[in-house]
Amino acid sequence: MYTQSFNVPDSTDGSTLKVVPPAASAHEEALQTQFDARIDADGKIEPREWMPEAYRKTLVRQISQHAHSEIVGMLPEGNWISRAPSLKRKAILIAKVQDEGGHGLYLYSAAETLGTSRDQMLDALHTGKAKYSSIFNYPTLNWADVGVIGWLVDGAAIMNQIPLCRCSYGPYARAMIRVCKEESFHQRQGYEALLVMMQGTTEQKAMVQDAVNRWWWKCLAMFGPPDADSPNSVQGMRWGIKRISNDDLRQKFVDATVPQAKVLGVTLPDPDLKWNEERQAHDYGQIDWDEFWATVNGNGPCNKERLGTRVKAWNDGAWVRDAALAHAHKQQARQMKEAA
Ligand code: 3HC
After folding, report:
1. What pTM, to 2 d.p., does this model score?
2. Which of 81, 126, 131, 294 is the most buried (most CB within 10 A)?
C-alpha cells in the first residue's frame, strides 16, 4: 500500500527561515559553507562532522519526540495483548508492540549521536517537558481500535516517515529505513484484521465503523499543524530534515486512504470529503485544532495516564538498571585484574 519510493520535491519558499546565528569566525564560516554545500547537494551529515548548533538542536527535538512517540505508542495497544481474540492475533500484537519498543531504541540511539544522553531525553519526557505524538493520548475502547490503529495510525506514521529515510542526518535516515519496513507490516496487519471483522457479524462491522469514526480526525491531526501555523517546517525543509510539508503529507494520506476505506466497506466520517477533479485530490473538512492543541499541551483524555504509566515503568525498572550497571562494573574490574 505504501512504498519507500516517493518522488518528492525539495524546493521550499525560504521566506520564513528561522534566524540562524551568524558564524563566529572565518574558520566557522568555512565550516558553515561546507555544511550548506553538503545540504544543497543532498548529501548526508554524520555525527562527528561540524553542524550548526540550531541544526543539532532541531534534530534532537524531532528525533527525541519521535522516540518518545514510539515508546508511549506501545501503551494503547499493549493494553490489548491479554485480550486479543485468538492466539494468532495475540502473537502478531506482541510482535508489533515489541517492534515499537525497538523503534524507540534506534531513535534514542540516533539522538544520542548528537550529544544528548538518553537519561536527559527520558527526564524531559517524564517531567512533561518533551512532546510525543498527540495520537497516543486517546483510549483504545475495543478490539477494532487495535485494527484501526494499525491501518490508520501506522498508515499515517508511514506516510510521514518514508520521507525521513532521506533525511539529511545519516543516523536518523538509516534508522528510518528499518522503522518504515516494520511499520509497513504493522499497517497491513491492522488492515487485514479489519477486513476479517468486516466479514463478521453486524456487531463486529459496527465496532469497526465506530473505531474509524473515533480515530479518523485524530489521524489527520497527527501530521501536525497546517503549514501556515507550523513554526519549524520551513527551516526543517531547508536543512533536508523534513522533505514534505505537514499539509502535503496529510493530503497524500487522505488520497491513499479513501480507496482503502471503500474496499473495507467503511465510511470515513467527513461529509465534506469528496474528489476534486481540478486539484486531482480529495477535499476534506475542518480539523479541530483547538482539541489537537489541548491534547498536545497535556489535556487530552489519556495524557496523565500515559505519562503516569511511563514514569512508573521507569521507577519500577530502577533495580534492573542498577543491577546491569553493577554487573558491568564487576566484569570490567575482573577484566582489568586479569590484564594487569
Ligand atoms: N503531536 C504532538 N505534537 C505535535 C504534533 C503531533 N501530532 N504535530 C506537531 N507537533 C508539535 C511539534 O513537535 C512542534 O512542537 P515543538 O516546536 O515544541 O517541538 C509544534 O507542534 C509545531 O509543529 P511543527 O509542524 O512546526 O513541527 P515539526 O516541523 O517538527 O513537524 C512532525 C512535526 C511532522 C511531527 C515532525 O516533527 C516529524 O515528522 N517527526 C518525526 C515523526 C514523528 O515524530 N512521528 C510521531 C508519530 S510516531 C508513531 O506514530 C509511532 C508509530 O509506531 C505509530
Report:
1. 0.92
2. 131
Q: What is the pLDDT of residues 163-213, one digit of tens each?
A: 999 999 999 999 999 999 999 999 999 999 999 999 999 999 999 999 999
Q: Alpha helix (H) ranges present in the chain?
A: 26-40, 53-72, 74-78, 87-112, 118-126, 143-148, 154-161, 170-197, 202-221, 233-238, 246-264, 289-294, 303-316, 318-339
**Residue 230: HSE in the Cβ half-sphere, 13 Å Cα cutoff:** 19
Ligand 1 neighbours, Cβ below 6 Å, are 61-62, 65-66, 69-70, 73, 100, 131, 133-134, 153-154, 157, 160-161, 222, 224-225, 230-233, 236, 242, 246, 296
3-state class of 240 per DSSP?
coil
Q: Which helix (H) or strand (E) holds 281?
A: strand 281-283
Rg, the chain, Cα only: 22
Q: Which atom of ligand 1 is nearest to the CA of 133?
A: 1
The three grid cell numbers given for residue 164, joined into one nine-digit string: 525521513
Q: Which three cell numbers stand for residue 236?
A: 526543517
What pLDDT does residue 19 have? 55
Q: How confident is the model at residue 340 (pLDDT cuts 50, 70, 90)?
A: confident
Q: What is the 296 CA–ligand 1 centroid distance (Å)? A: 10
Q: Are 269 and 220 in contact (CB under 8 A)?
A: no
Q: What's the rounded Cα separation, in Å, for the pair 146 and 165?
A: 26
Residue 291: Cβ within 10 Å count: 15
pLDDT in tens, 146-173: 999 999 999 999 999 999 999 999 999 9
CB 132 within 8 A of CB 125: yes
For ligand 1, atom 51, name the residue with the nearest CA: 70
Which grid coordinates are listed for 277?
477533479
Which protein residue's CA is at the shortest distance from atom 37 of ligand 1? 62
